[in-house]
Amino acid sequence: MSLSWLASNPRARRNRPYGPAQRTIVTAEDPDALVATLDACPMHRPTPLHALPALARRLGLDSVYVKDEAQRFGFGAFKALGGVFAVGSILCRHLAGAGRPAVDFAELARGAHRDLTASMVFTTASSGNHGRSVAAGAKLFGSRCVIFLPGFTSAEKEAAIRARGAEVVRVEGDYEAAVARCRTVAAEQGWIIVSDTSWDGYSDIPRDVLRGYTVLAHEALAQFLMLAEASPPTHVFVQAGVGGLAAAVIGVLWEKLGEARPRFIVVEPQSADCWFQSNLAGRPALASGDARTVMGGLACREISPDVWPLIGLGADWFMTIPEDAVPSAMRQMARPEPPDPLIVAGPSGCTGMAALLRVTDDATARTALGLDGAARVMLINSEGASGEPAFFEQATGLTVEAAAARMTSSSQARSPG
Ligand SMILES: Cc1ncc(COP(=O)(O)O)c(C=O)c1O
Q1: Does the CB atom of residue 331 touch ligand 1 within 6 A?
Q2: Ligand 1 near 129 CB (within 6 A)
Q3: Could you tell me the pTM of the whole model?
């Protein structure tokens, strides 16, 4: 089945085992060690998984749940998990290579080996969130950091990166232009690139980033099983830029659940449909559009080729959403029908919701995906709205602060005692 905006994956097989080609990219290893590492950050705790029973009833589904990464670390996006973790992992390897005694993240954060960490410079290109995470990691461990931003990244996102002590270089052009500039300058200066996208000969560090994201997938599955009476989701909508988030989510759930894994629907903006086009081509391919989109975190014209063997075989469906689907999805989340909780989502965060609304509104698509009364759906709110406050206010009629205050008072009203 194929519509202009929805296509099945002809390579997907339910009985395909999670093999070595996938396991070298993402593995569902016991997350305890990862979580212990992240505990070096004092604010770290699992983000909530919200049930949306009123929406599920209206859409004729068994249940809808949203993993709310807007509440990650007080950072506001899942990207917090990747960059900080990757910077710490690189430093630990570097120290081992320099013959220094092993230390963990907490000791590094407390200043161990500062003579060496202070001499290192980390850099990346980013549409905003990943750069903020790398900046946070560099700050935590006392290193210098330089972030390359494309023209479209909001002033709020740039300010949040600078607030973490990083220098910012604005690059005229899109995300790919920022990646190219970062690579050139890093090669000249001997800086360490902490990219969330891979290229030929560069995949170890993007895999460190992915390892950090797997924490989200482990948490979400454990929470889902607890809330949904031990039944895993039947459908997971996951948004993709270069594909790191989708790879982590698909990888962990595929490895842990095998044939009982959900159907994975990879969602992209219409103009930044590099995964959609790669699925049609059967190999990594460029987006059909210019990636000019309000969904800044997803504004990529190229996939991360390293994760193609995982997403290219593991995703069941690929779909795109138009720009005008964003404000209505944001509104749906911020102004829900009671008793559903208010969720503050940014333009890239609400895309799973936009996709669910698009599919359930189309009888052919809905039937093809099997979104019926037994469907247990999981979405990921990958970011809050602090990076795009004006857009959020225009879409929802609420300021980000007013929405956050409403969220706090309604969650206090719901929690017993
Ligand atoms: C908020 C948000 N959601 C989703 C994504 C997509 O992640 P990936 O590029 O790993 O596919 C990004 C990437 O920057 C993002 O910032």
Answers
A1: no
A2: yes
A3: 0.96
